[in-house]
Design goal:
By secondary structure, this protein is an alpha+beta fold. It folds into three domains: 78 residues; 94 residues, no CATH class; 156 residues, Ribbon (Umud Fragment, subunit A), CATH 2.10.109. The protein is built from eight helices and 20 strands. A hairpin with a 2-residue loop joins strand 13 and strand 14. Helix 1 runs antiparallel to helix 2, helix 1 packs parallel to helix 3 and helix 2 packs antiparallel against helix 3.
Amino acid sequence: MGFLTTLDEMRRRARARKLLKETLRGAETVKAMREDLLDAATRDGLARLMADARRAVRRGSRAEAEALAHTLGTLLNRLSPPRPLAGWRGNFEVLVVALSVAMAFRAYFYQPFKIPTGSMYPTLSGIASREQAGPRLRDRMPLKLASWLVTGEWYKEVRVRVGGMVAPVLRDDSKPGYFACQVGGRRYYVPGDAPLLQALRAGNRVQVASGARLWSGVVTAGDFVFVNRWLWNFRRPRRGEVMVFSTAGIPTLPSGTHYIKRMCGLPGETVSIRPPNLLIDGDAVFEPGMIGKIARCGKLAPWAPHYAGFTVPGMTRTHPQGLMMPEDKVPLAGDEYYALGDNSRNSLDSRFWGAVPGRNLLGPATVVYWPLTSPRLGRIR
């Protein structure tokens, strides 16, 4: 029994000395951080207690180590009171730092960007939809959320509150990828590729009753891409790159948003289109590869439809830098770029509103990173 008692005492003394060591380290931290704020008496008292603690750690008894740890700990709590919710505060600080790093990365390196429309199809896909009378099993929670995370698909219903005739809203750019219509004095948004829009454009009269379903189906999110914000700081933009730019200051375009097109004309060049070819300074160009693939009406991949080539609308020019007819030509100034959509027959681009100033350029789109089931997932061509 005597041996066990001695062994137990040694363990208690070791624990007491360990506690005193930890308390002493805390005292050294407080002294270093707050020494200039302490009065002389408190500073001297803390120094004496720390000296006694160092001696007790080396050769003091258990009772002495415990007493000093308690006294020193009480003083530290008075000098530097523990903050409430310290653990949550620490986690919050880590979260703030992580968000700051992410925001800096987004602002200066790679910025995510959503493709809302089909102007670059099939190179990139905008918001697409298919009509569906009601939700399937996978369209109900929680499978609905899991399906969306993988495929970008989301079941949606648009019901009218008050019935009446459906009237298209001619100018509403607040929800890219959707078209706005009005029923019973209220505005509703339906995917831009919905058959309802084609019916209205064909001049058909569509009337719905109160509470009726205006549209229902599955909406697939457009491709999400990363834009390289730093590359063009080190070299000039190149023809054929998929460019993202701000619409600020470009007449007729909604301000405060971004467009994505293919860079086809560079500063100092003269751009024209003789379908299906893009002409630079009067000569057809087929380089880089994607420019040639579009001009030759090739395919992006076996699953994709053929490109339509570079086309002109065949209308009277409404903008001095527009390309409406094969004989139209646009000379570009020293800091202007000509932007064309790969889906030439369905793209609102420089042919309609002119060149893009260099100051508006953000960078080239480089990678499609979501939806995970997109056939375009990966490097953008």
